[in-house]
Design goal:
Number of strands: 15
CATH superfamily of the largest domain: DD-peptidase/beta-lactamase superfamily
Helix content: 10-25%
CATH architecture of the largest domain: 3-Layer(aba) Sandwich
Largest sheet: 6 strands, antiparallel
Structural class: alpha+beta
Oligomer: single chain
Strand content: 15-25%
Number of domains: 2
Order of helices and strands: HHHHEEEEHHEEEEEEHHEEEEE
Distance between the termini: 28 Å
Radius of gyration: 20 Å
Strand order of the largest sheet: 5-6-7-8-9-10
CATH class of the largest domain: Alpha Beta
Length: 349
């Protein structure tokens, strides 16, 4: 839409959203732009901080009225445009803003502008628990980190920009082929705009384009994007020098598709080794329970559940058992209490 001249990256997102959705404004008058949303510099929380009745399918229960109330009560952040912080909320607002500008539903906008031009016939939005007719027999079942079946997430209008699309491996390879430039498409100029380096991230080896990470590692550039929700994990990336790419899709949240993707593009990027489970006493687990805040404002909540710790992003169930340790995992987090704690996780952001 930038290439078409329909929007500008420095446009305020409020220009395209209904007036009922209040966007924070800093004391100096700065507000959130489309560029801020696309590069994770909006200063917005990671998610809507609401407790869902069904923790396995929270997005189906969110309403536009809840979104409006949440945004109206949100205090302006001092980090708009100045600090990287991943935000699903921001991408949902971005999707809604672009839909409003185009005068189309989110799925119709994506279909007309991306899926149809690239011939991606097996990609679309799953609104309910049952697959739509065009996806009959193609929808994989998802499993959580304990390999327990999970329901498919349902999505409503206004909450689709941050992960409502489902796709086949074949379609994602077609998308990657076009992105690398192995075939000409009507989106070539848009891809070039998408992949321009825009800002740094909270990872020293990674910059960000419009939503895509640009990582320098072992003398190699890898352009990539990871995603996932309960029951599924995905990673897409490529090396622009060799023009080779990888798509990794998993129907288990236990899979670290980012780890696999980087390794497949360069074997010098090591795969994580399996770790043995250790037993801790209830008292030791209780001592670690609490709320921990990251530098980007994300809050993880840890609770003891019988013989293990489980965590969730605050306001976003379900809780995920802590199953492995990594010395660098939570080095950027600090406990939110007078009592200091130490904990490390194998969490990939």
């Amino acid at each position: 839409m930038v290439v078409r001249g329909e929007v500008k990256l420095d446009d305020a997102v409020s220009k395209y959203l209904p007036p009922e959705i209040k966007i924070p404004i800093q004391s100096d008058g700065r507000t959130v732009s489309l560029l801020d949303l696309a590069t994770f510099y909006s200063g917005l929380p990671r998610d809507l901080e609401l407790n869902a009745q069904d923790p396995r399918n929270p997005f189906a229960q969110y309403t536009m009225a809840q979104l409006q109330a949440f945004m109206a009560a949100l205090k302006p952040s001092a980090n708009i445009g100045s600090r990287f912080g991943y935000s699903n909320l921001g991408y949902n607002l971005l999707g809604e803003a672009l839909s409003q500008r185009a005068g189309l539903s989110y799925e119709e906008l994506v279909k007309q502008r991306i899926l149809d031009p690239l011939g991606m016939k097996d990609t679309g939005v799953i609104r309910g628990q049952e697959a739509p007719p065009e996806f009959a027999g193609q929808l994989a079942s998802g499993y959580d980190k304990q390999l327990t079946p999970t329901p498919h997430l349902e999505h409503r209008d206004g909450f689709m920009g941050a992960g409502a699309l489902s796709a086949s491996a074949s379609d994602m390879l077609d998308f990657l082929e076009a992105m690398i430039g192995l075939r000409e498409t009507p989106l070539d100029q848009a891809f070039a705009e998408l992949l321009q380096v825009r800002r740094p991230t909270n990872r020293p080896d990674t910059l960000v384009g419009l939503g895509w990470g640009i990582t320098q590692r072992e003398g190699q550039t890898i352009i990539w994007r990871a995603g996932g929700h309960p029951g599924f994990s995905s990673w897409v990336g490529y090396d622009p020098a060799s023009r080779s790419g990888v798509v990794v899709l998993s129907n288990s949240a236990a899979a670290d598709t980012t780890d696999v993707g980087f390794h497949l593009l360069n074997p010098h990027n090591p795969l994580q080794r399996g770790r043995k489970k250790i037993e801790l006493s209830p008292a030791a687990l209780d001592a670690l329970a609490g709320r921990y805040r990251f530098a980007d404002g994300t809050v993880l909540v840890f609770k003891r559940e019988e013989d293990h710790l489980a965590w969730t992003v605050e306001g976003q169930p379900p809780r995920v058992p802590v199953t492995r340790a990594r010395s660098a995992g939570l080095r950027a987090a600090r406990p939110i209490s007078a009592r200091q704690r130490k904990i490390t996780l194998g969490t990939m952001w």
